[in-house]
Known about the structure:
Number of strands of chain A: 10
Distance between the termini of chain A: 36 Å
Structural class of chain B: mainly beta
Order of helices and strands of chain B: EEEEEEEEEEE
Oligomer: heterodimer
Amino acid sequence: GESVGLHLPTLSVQEGDNSIINCAYSNSASDYFIWYKQESGKGPQFIIDIRSNMDKRQGQRVTVLLNKTVKHLSLQIAATQPGDSAVYFCAETGNQFYFGTGTSLTVIP
Amino acid sequence: GAVVSQHPSWVICKSGTSVKIECRSLDFQATTMFWYRQFPKQSLMLMATSNEGSKATYEQGVEKDKFLINHASLTLSTLTVTSAHPEDSSFYICSATPSGSYEQFFGPGTRLTVL
């Protein structure tokens, strides 16, 4: 796996609004993509995944969109709540596992 | 299922001492475990990949003699920070991959504070 220790981009949204977090991936051979949520002081937790033969997958309040043409992954959170405030990482895996930089989401009550 | 634990969750130690952090897969066998380091407001930085029964593969810039990794069984990997210094203070997170899978399951992390 790989990751880069960069300062995280931030996103602030109003409670109740929808959030969109984006991620670009690099490996055309990646066939499985995962979104993780990391709350402060805790390890990352699995949110939702998608395989490369799909372009959309929905969970509870979350939707992942995959655009293989431009190697782009997005996570949509509907009706964002204060408890959604966290850092969100995308990950791609095929024959290796790569993390995205992550985005820090802050929900404003 | 797929639970990974770490122990301790928080450790404070004096400069110059060594600290061991354990990572366990509780309900699955993990042929591969990963160790990450994370500074505040930054992403995870992979330190090393640990395969059961073999030497760990360290990322560039990570001192293998400073961060000793042992993956003695399919459910346990340990990271020992030797002669810790204040700059080693960080959040250390492990993850484990079940045999035959690519997905990583993360532990809750260990906060190391070196005085």
